[in-house]
Give the backbone structure.
Amino acid sequence: MRHHRVPDSATFVRTTPRFDADTIPVGLLSSHHLAARTWAVIRVDSGELEFTWEDDPDNPTTIGAGDSLVIPPEARHHISPPGKVSFEIDFYSDRSGS
C-alpha cells in the first residue's frame, strides 16, 4: 500500500458532497488524475471503496469505513464501490512549488 501525505504547504480548497454507490460521478470510475499541484484525500464514512493505481492495477487498495487515502498530483487512478459506500473527497492545492 502506498502512503502519501498532503504537504504542509498545501491549502484546503473544498470538500465534495457525500457520494454513495448510486451517486459516484462516472468520471471517478474510470482512469483519471488530479491536476499538477492538486492533492486529494478520499475519506470513507461507511462501507468500502476499492481504489486502484493505474500503474499497479493488479493490487487495488480497499479503503474501509473511518479510513482515508491520499492521492498525489497527476497519479492516474480510479475507484469502484464493491457494495454500499459513503465517502467524500477533500481537495488541497500546493502552490509552493515544492
User: Anything to note?
Assistant: The chain is about 0% helix and 45% strand. The domain at 11-93 is CATH 2.60.120.10 (Jelly Rolls).
